[in-house]
Amino acid sequence: MSDTATIFPALKYDDAPAAVAWLQKAFGFAEHAVHKAPDGGIAHAEMKFGNAMIMFGSTGKPDPANPWSTERMGIYMCVPDIDAHYARAKAAGAEIVRPLADTSYGAREYSARDAGGHLWSFGTYDPWKG
């Protein structure tokens, strides 16, 4: 079993660049990866604290094809056998809001809402490995 987490809180900030500095100063997080967006915001950031990690980015324009475009907080979980996980979620009646697909960054992911309406994404991307 891994010593690092495989579940990652995912956040959106109106001012994500300021959040990077604030999370370091106030909560003691360290940068793991920060990918800037062309508009000066942050496309994707990962910050770690011990063996825990959060992921976040800047808020953006609503995109009907991407449920994360309007969500302020959700959960990402790294899953080794994503196809089996997707089949299990569908069979259980999970509300799939982004179908399983390959991503531009080499992962395979899908998103679903749980019984309480919370947004989750599951995928093969492991932030610890980059």
**Major sheet: arrangement of strands:** 2-3-4-1-5-8-7-6
**Uncertain ranges:** none
Order of helices and strands: EHEEEEHEEE
Shape: globular
Could you report the average pLDDT, rounded to the nearest whole number? Answer: 93
Computed CA radius of gyration, to the nearest angstrom: 15 Å
The helix content is 10-25%
Biggest sheet record: 8 strands, mixed
So how many helices?
2
Strand content: 35-45%
The total strand number stands at 8
End-to-end C-alpha gap: 19 Å
Structural class: alpha+beta
Can you characterise this structure?
The chain has 130 residues and is of the alpha+beta class. It is 17% helix and 42% strand. The protein is built from two helices and eight strands, in the order βαββββαβββ. It has helices at residues 16-27, 82-91; strands spanning 7-13, 30-36, 42-49, 52-58, 73-78, 95-102, 108-113, 119-123. Strands 2-3-4-1-5-8-7-6 form an eight-stranded mixed sheet. β3 and β4 form a beta hairpin. The longest helix has 12 residues, at 16-27. It starts with 6 loop residues before the first strand and ends in a 7-residue tail after the last strand. The mean pLDDT is 93.
